Amino acid sequence: MPSYAATVTEIEELAPSVVQITVAFGDETFSFEPGQWVNFRFPDGISRVYTIASAPHRTQAVQLCVRVGSGRGGKALTQLDAGAPVTIEGPYGDFLLPENDGRPLIFMAGDTGIAPVRSIVLSMLANHDPRSVCVLYEPDQRNILYAADFDPLARDGAIRHESGKIETLIARNRKLIPAATVMVAGFDPFIDRVVDSLRENAIDTTNMISETFGVMP
Ligand SMILES: Cc1cc2nc3c(=O)[nH]c(=O)nc-3n(C[C@H](O)[C@H](O)[C@H](O)COP(=O)(O)OP(=O)(O)OC[C@H]3O[C@@H](n4cnc5c(N)ncnc54)[C@H](O)[C@@H]3O)c2cc1C
After folding, report:
1. Residues 125, 58 share a domain
2. Whose CA is nearest to atom 30 of ligand 1?
3. Does 184 lie in the same domain as 121?
4. Distance of CA 79 from the midpoint of ligand 1 (Å)
5. Which helix (H) or strand (E) holds 74?
6. What is the CATH number of the domain that holds 25?
7. Distance separating alpha carbons of residues 37 and 34, to the nearest angstrom
8. Does residue 99 belong to any structural domain of this protein?
9. I need a labelling partner for 110 at 20 to 30 A (CA). Which of 32, 120, 198, 216 fits?
10. Are residues 81 and 124 in the same domain?
């Protein structure tokens, strides 16, 4: 898989223990499908997997939205500064928007699981995708990540964006979910709760498209 020399150009705190890292690629052309992830190799050589939060029409740089955990990756993040040389390997992953089958899209994201959803939704809007979009988001605490993107879109009626406990949001939308394509992203406990909640509402989970970030850091 291709490997790209890149530079961290900005590290922005989006919420307590959540950072957005912007990585620029110099002259190399990096391309990806919205929803994909990369292997991010820190200057000291260790690597962690992070999903691209920005849309693919921005080709010179990508944004990653990362919860700073207590493990080695989290430690490497706290030592990372703007200007650091890093290596990006990838892209990988198949958390991809299905072909337009006319079905509305319902995204469910927990915490930094909003990263691939942001990339996909921004890309759909840029491509004038005609499907309706609903984002059901469970924030950590009350920190709605990327509210500055989603709030104006929801106000304009371009998308629906609801936040709160995922079980409440699923119950509220239970009549709409069976007719939609459902895409779910987040850490393991969130994915498990989504599956349990869908089943409690007698909604079939067979065709659900999901991306798990693994154990909660
Ligand atoms: C497909 C995918 C996409 C992800 N996207 C995001 C995202 O967009 N935002 C986000 O906040 N988190 C994301 N994660 C989670 C992220 O990769 C880390 O697992 C998380 O940040 C915890 O890392 P840590 O270093 O703090 O914890 P650690 O405790 O150091 O790591 C967690 C566990 O994973 C193991 N591990 C993780 N990565 C590696 C690796 N590359 N090599 C060897 N061992 C490894 C560690 O040994 C440990 O057992 C994603 C995970 C996956 C699988």
Report:
1. no
2. 71
3. yes
4. 16
5. helix 72-78
6. 2.40.30.10
7. 9
8. no
9. 32
10. no
**Residue 32: domain span:** 3-92
Q: Residue 165's CB: how many other CB atoms inside 10 A?
A: 12
217 ligand 1 Cβ < 6 A: yes
Q: How far is the CA of 211 from the centre of ligand 1 (A)?
A: 13
pTM listed for this prediction: 0.95
Last residue of a domain, one of 92, 121, 140: 92
Contact status, residue 22 vs residue 83, Cβ threshold 8 Å:
no
160-193: pLDDT as tens digits: 999 999 999 999 999 999 999 999 999 999 999 9
The residue type of 104 is P
- The verdict on residue 100 lying in a domain is no
Q: Is the CB of 47 under 6 A from ligand 1?
A: yes
CA of 49 from ligand 1 middle (Å) equals 6
Q: In the chain, how many domains are there? A: 2
Please write the tens of the pLDDT for every residue from 56-110. 887 789 999 999 999 999 999 999 999 999 999 999 999 999 998 889 999 999 9
Annotate 32-51 with b (16+ C-beta within 10 A) or e (fewer): bbbbbbbbbbbeeeebbebb
